[in-house]
Design brief:
Blueprint (H helix, E strand, L loop, with lengths): L5 H15 L4 E5 L6 E7 L6 H9 L11 E7 L15 H12 L10 E4 L2 E2 L18 E8 L2 E12 L3 E10 L1 E4 L9 E4 L2 E9 L1 E12 L9 E10 L7 E6 L3
Parallel strand pairs: 2-3
Antiparallel strand pairs: 1-6, 2-4, 4-5, 6-7, 7-12, 8-11, 8-13, 9-10, 13-14
Length: about 250
């Protein structure tokens, strides 16, 4: 009787375990009032960024999380040249920040840079207290996730004549990096709300109701915990109309 190689046995076992694992399911829904998308533009190559990263991490314990505010951290790559390539950095993150500048929603491109509900927030540097104010009604945003598939829907309170798109970001938590060069050399940095995967989906519909179907963006790296952030905007404009977010099942 011929013996089955151990590598074949291990491969079959891994396949069985994978197929037996339950598919991730998640349902996100915003209230009709606007939920603020809070964007931090940061870099491991920037010595001024760790305090902002720590401040953002504290929002994990904020009672307004996912209900009134959806925080995300976009790591930019334009500081990589000074000696430390940020492993979370993407070109798309810097391009989004530049789009804010082109639309004159921020004064310049810099890190750490914070944008709250589509508006630049320089007040963080003098008094880092997040005051969201009263939110107006803009409509409900829903995202249904079943395994790798997603279905999005936006029921707007206002008529839109322009094309809308849905943004979906996979967020990583509990991430650590030992920085060995650059401005943060010798420091161990901790990160939460890090964008590890990001896609934009064109929505169909007009007026007050829009839909989209697609597949979740892949995550570039593994993280101890993950969440999803989603928001809707006019195509070509980074300004978020409505946002939603929540933890992915572990």
């Amino acid at each position: 009787m011929q013996r089955v190689p151990i590598r074949v046995v291990l491969a079959l076992l891994a396949l069985l375990l994978t197929s037996a694992a339950p598919a991730r399911q998640l349902s996100l829904q915003s209230p009709p009032q606007r939920v603020s998308l809070l964007e931090l533009y940061t870099s491991e190559g920037c010595s001024s960024c760790p305090p902002a990263d720590r401040w953002l991490s504290n929002l994990k314990n904020d009672p307004r999380l996912w209900k009134q505010v959806v925080p995300i951290a976009f790591h930019v790559d334009y500081w990589d040249y000074i000696g430390w390539p940020d492993r979370f950095a993407t070109k798309a993150a810097g391009q989004r920040q530049q789009a804010y500048a082109r639309h004159r929603r921020i004064g310049s491109v810099y890190t750490p840079g914070l944008v709250v509900a589509g508006k630049e927030w320089r007040g963080w540097f003098s008094r880092p207290v997040l005051n969201l104010g009263k939110a107006r009604e803009v409509g409900r945003l829903r995202l249904q996730v079943n395994g790798p598939d997603l279905n999005g829907e936006f029921e707007s309170r206002h008529n839109h004549t322009a094309k809308l798109v849905l943004h979906v970001a996979r967020l990583g938590f509990g991430l650590r990096t030992r920085v060995r060069a650059g401005e943060n050399e010798g420091r161990e940095l901790e990160h939460d709300f890090v964008v590890l995967g990001y896609r934009i989906y064109p929505m169909t519909g007009q007026g007050l109701r829009y839909q989209v179907q697609g597949r979740l963006p892949d995550s570039s790296q593994q993280a101890p915990r993950e969440a999803l952030a989603t928001w809707v905007s006019v195509a070509g404009d980074p300004y978020p109309i409505q946002a939603a977010g929540g933890w992915l099942p572990e």
